[in-house]
């Protein structure tokens, strides 16, 4: 069935620049094929893959032509094919219990296999409507699907807490559940491709920005530190992630105010809920914010809605004892959790590039510089820090992709 793609774009936080780009690109309607079929059931032999639904097919020529019309001709040489977007559900675990999670698998069209795999990881989102698998012709595309136009099978997990698992609070910046959700989706994607008789190679690329940058290093670390693992990483591109969580917090808490308090409330509340701590929220937040927090993170609000319901004055937002302890380096349950889940101090064995803009207003660039230096000092002889343009956190994504995608293409 032919339908027109709308001129809307899925509103990922931290993807402002890319969103604007594809909003322009798709402002002219193009013909695409979408499917109203019911999800295909899981074959009995699959361990991870549960079901799939074909959502959309778009051609190479449509993408190339509209990119030129939008004034982004520098990308047309990277658009080598069309692609088909599938919503996939799969099995993973949370607190040692089996759950069903979701994401997208985007398959290049018209290419002979074996195709390289690329696991792409989104930045911080607050609303479930922003999850990759919530894709629809009304919401439009998020951006990461377009990496498949460069010849990769793109695997785009929602992460736990969105899509099929939206009833769980997202375990924000949690190493264990971030890496396991990605690894299990990669396994599910392979089973799905096998079922579709689509050949794929053993090459695996990892990419992400902001929280997705953190997730990218987390899953690379999980792969490379697993003695029984079967995956190997071809190359990793991580942008502006909070790899050293205590370091990011130290930089933020030097100031009296922070323009995006939703991030601080999110990482704190997620630690409380994920670990099922018994201390009341007033041990972390002051009223009236402590009472508001659960409703703010129920998946119904966007970033601006959450920020508007909080205070950018850190002294008003946080419990004063907790805030003083964090600022003075006094160990707390929360600071221990931040340290446990950081991914800035280990030994990577495959190529890694860390991208960051000096104009970043959310994650300090020193976090990426220090992380790169630690990884190199640990023996990571294929680690490189790359400074990129952009005058804000969100606007640096496209400069990162302009460097990372050609690098990946050269290695595929």
Distance between the termini: 34 Å
| CATH-defined topology of the largest domain | Rossmann fold
Total DSSP helices: 13
Supply the number of structural domains.
2
Stretches where pLDDT falls below 50 for ≥5 residues?
Answer: 1-35
Q: Compute the average pLDDT.
A: 88
Work out the strand percent. Answer: 15-25%
For the largest beta sheet, what order do the strands appear in spatially?
3-4-5-7-6-8-9-10-11
Question: In the CATH hierarchy, what is the class of the largest domain?
Answer: Alpha Beta
Pfam families: LIP
Organism: Agaribacillus aureus
Protein name: Lipase family protein
InterPro entries: AB_hydrolase_fold (IPR029058), Lipase_secreted (IPR005152)
Name a few traits of the molecule.
2 domains; nine-stranded mixed sheet; 11 strands; disordered N terminus; alpha/beta; Rossmann fold; 412 residues; 434 Repressor (Amino-terminal Domain)
Q: How is this structure best described in words?
A:
The protein has 412 residues and is of the alpha/beta class. It folds into two domains: 310 residues, 3-Layer(aba) Sandwich (Rossmann fold), CATH 3.40.50; 96 residues, 434 Repressor (Amino-terminal Domain) (Orthogonal Bundle), CATH 1.10.260.160. 34% of the residues lie in helices and 19% in strands. It is built from 13 helices and eleven strands. A nine-stranded mixed beta sheet has the order 3-4-5-7-6-8-9-10-11, with helices on both faces. Strands 1-2 form a two-stranded antiparallel ribbon. Helix 3 crosses helix 4. The longest helix is centred in the middle third of the chain and has 21 residues. It is globular and about 60 Å long. It starts with a strand and ends with a helix. 50% of the residues are buried. InterPro entries: AB_hydrolase_fold (IPR029058), Lipase_secreted (IPR005152).
């Amino acid at each position: 069935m032919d339908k027109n793609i709308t001129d809307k774009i899925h509103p990922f936080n931290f993807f402002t620049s890319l969103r604007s780009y594809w909003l322009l690109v798709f402002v002219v309607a193009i013909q695409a094929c979408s499917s109203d079929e019911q999800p295909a059931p899981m074959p009995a032999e699959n361990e991870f893959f549960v079901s799939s639904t074909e959502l959309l097919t778009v051609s190479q020529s449509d993408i190339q032509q509209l990119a030129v019309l939008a004034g982004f001709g520098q990308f047309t040489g990277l658009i080598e094919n069309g692609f088909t977007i599938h919503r996939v559900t799969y099995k993973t675990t949370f607190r040692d219990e089996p759950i069903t999670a979701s994401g997208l698998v985007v398959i290049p069209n018209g290419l002979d296999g074996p195709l390289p795999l690329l696991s792409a990881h989104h930045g911080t989102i607050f609303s479930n409507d922003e999850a990759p698998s919530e894709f629809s012709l009304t919401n439009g595309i998020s951006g990461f699907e377009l990496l498949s136009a460069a010849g990769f099978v793109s695997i785009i997990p929602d992460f736990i807490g969105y899509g099929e698992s939206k009833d769980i609070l997202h375990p924000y910046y949690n190493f264990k559940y971030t890496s396991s959700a990605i690894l299990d989706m990669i396994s599910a994607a392979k089973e799905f491709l096998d079922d579709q008789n689509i050949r794929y190679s053993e090459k695996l690329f990892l990419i992400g920005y902001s929280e997705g940058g953190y997730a990218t290093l987390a899953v690379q670390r999980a792969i490379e530190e697993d003695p029984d693992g079967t995956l190997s990483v071809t190359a990793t591109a991580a942008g502006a992630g909070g790899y050293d969580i205590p370091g990011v917090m130290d930089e933020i808490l030097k100031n009296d105010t922070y323009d995006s308090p939703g991030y601080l409330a999110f990482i704190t509340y997620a630690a409380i809920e994920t670990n099922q701590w018994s201390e009341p929220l007033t041990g972390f937040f002051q009223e009236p914010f402590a009472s508001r927090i659960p409703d703010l993170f129920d998946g119904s609000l966007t970033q601006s809605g959450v920020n508007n319901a909080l205070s950018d004055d850190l002294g008003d937002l946080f419990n004063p004892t907790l805030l003083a302890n964090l600022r003075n380096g006094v160990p707390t349950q929360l600071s221990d959790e931040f340290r446990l889940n950081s991914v800035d101090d280990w030994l990577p064995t495959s190529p890694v590039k860390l991208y960051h803009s000096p104009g970043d207003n959310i994650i300090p660039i020193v976090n990426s510089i220090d992380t790169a230096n630690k990884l190199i000092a640990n023996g990571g002889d294929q680690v490189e820090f790359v400074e990129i343009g952009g005058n804000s956190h969100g606007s640096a994504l496209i400069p990162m992709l302009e460097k990372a995608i050609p690098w990946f293409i050269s290695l595929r």
